[in-house]
Amino acid sequence: MAKRGVNLSQERIDAFFEVFVETGKVTEGARAAGFSTRSAYNLKNKSPELKERWEEANQQVDDMLDAEIWRRGHDGIDKPIFYQGRVVATIKEYSDKMLELAAIGRMPHKYARRAVEMTGKDGKDLIPQMDDIEAARRMAWLLTQGAAAKKKQDASPPITLAPMPDKENESGRSE
Questions:
Q1: Three-state DSSP class for 55?
Q2: Separation of alpha carbons 30 and 39, rounded Å
Q3: DSSP result, 77-125
Q4: β-pair type (77-83, 86-93)
Q5: At a CB cut-off of 8 Å and minimum separation 6, what does 18 contact?
Q6: Does the pTM exceed 0.90?
Q7: What burial class does residue 28 get, using C-beta atoms within 10 Å of its C-beta: 0-12 exposed, 13-18 middle, 19+ buried?
Q8: Could you give the angle at the alpha carbon of 13 between the alpha carbons of 8 and 17, nearest 5°?
Q9: Which of 2, 9, 33, 105 could form a cystine bridge with 15, CB 3.0-4.6 A?
């Protein structure tokens, strides 16, 4: 049985890593080296040396991104000002979004968005949990209200919907 894959010479592997680090794109590195993106991802499984090289390349890309985020957020970029089609001046423009990303990366404990859990009185859910029967009861009520509103749609005055009945009031007994 023939072995699948391409013969990855050291020259092609070097070409892949060079372009990958330069562009930060695995697909571009693979294209430059003349093999598929899948073959590029399989590189890290071929040997511990290639896995280490892969991780180093990823770290270099991460460092370049960090540097660019910092440059745009902290140092700013010179944006040209045009007058009658010619550059007459430049203005330093800073990116709040890039500075925010830098802060999140360096201090996630302070700036990363986190899920917030909110509870009602005595730690109960703000939105009560309901079983399938209660959900079906509420859905049926909504559908009947929608049908009633549809019938009244031709009338000129605005539609007023009736309040949803409590479980106790609807059946006359408490669950």
A1: helix
A2: 8
A3: EEEEEEETTEEEEEEEE--HHHHHHHHHHH-HHHHS------B-GGG-B
A4: antiparallel
A5: 29, 32
A6: no
A7: middle
A8: 155
A9: 33
Q: Tell me how far apart the alpha carbons of residues 41 and 45 are, in angstroms, rounded to a whole number.
A: 8
Provide the pLDDT for residue 138: 87
Instruction: Kindly state the tokens that stand for 123.
Output: 């730690």
Rg (CA), the chain: 31
Backbone φ and ψ of 95, nearest 5°: -110, 110
Confidence class for position 87, pLDDT limits 50, 70, 90: very high
Q: Is 66 exposed, middle or buried (0-12, 13-18, 19+ CB in 10 A)?
A: middle
CA–CA dist 91, 68 (Å, integer): 18
Instruction: Give the span between the Cα atoms of 85 and 62, in whole angstroms.
Output: 38
